[in-house]
Amino acid sequence: MILSDNIEKRRRQVEGIASFGLIFIAVSLVAPFAGMDDIRNLSFLKWIYAAGALIYIVARIVNVNDSKDSLRLRRLRRQEFWAGVAFCFAAFFWFYNDMKYLPATPGVIIMVGPLKILHETILFSLVGAFLQLVTSWMISFRMKKEKKEGVQPDKGANNNR
């Protein structure tokens, strides 16, 4: 009983930390579209995005599985980590494209907009968001199903129901 209470407390904390990282990611992705003609804020926002991706992936690395959890539920929780990997790839491409398209010399007219710099970042962010959304729904439905059925943890990989 004490062990499962500690696990539930850790799950709530990890979900809060991951949500905090997702807020950083969302704010830094929405902000460039508020001023489409000015891309000077992109160099500041990429750091916020990277911090959010780092916070999210660190939260997903923490083990929140209970020994009573089924193998399927443990795999679903591991899948949330891959959403964090997609966010980290998105942060990488933001840094890469920022260096690629923005000139280092001041006074040079910049002929690219935020969509040219953020197109891969947006793509990988959508992949990460899709993975997170689907996985969280599947975890929720699986936990309800196992609670209703009183499912015991899987003992092997041959149990494919």
Features:
about 160 residues; elongated
Contiguous helical run count: 4
Structural class: mainly alpha
SSE ordering = HHHH
Number of strands: 0
- Outline type: elongated
Mean pLDDT across the residues is 82
Low-confidence stretches: none
Task: Please describe the biggest sheet, giving its number of strands, its sense, and whether it closes into a barrel.
Answer: none
What is the strand content? under 5%
Using only C-alpha atoms, the radius of gyration works out to 20 Å
**How far is the first residue's CA from the last residue's CA?**
28 Å
The percent range for helix content is: over 70%
The domain tally reads 1
What does this structure look like?
The protein has about 160 residues and is mostly helical. It has one domain (about 1-105, about 110-150). Helix content is about 70%, strand content about 0%. The chain contains four helices and no strands. Helix 1 (about 1-30) runs antiparallel to helix 2 and helix 2 runs antiparallel to helix 3 (about 70-100). The radius of gyration is 20 Å and the shape is elongated. The model has no long low-confidence stretch (mean pLDDT about 80).
In short:
The chain has 161 residues and is mainly α. The chain has four helices and no strands. It has helices at residues 2-30, 42-61, 71-101, 114-149.
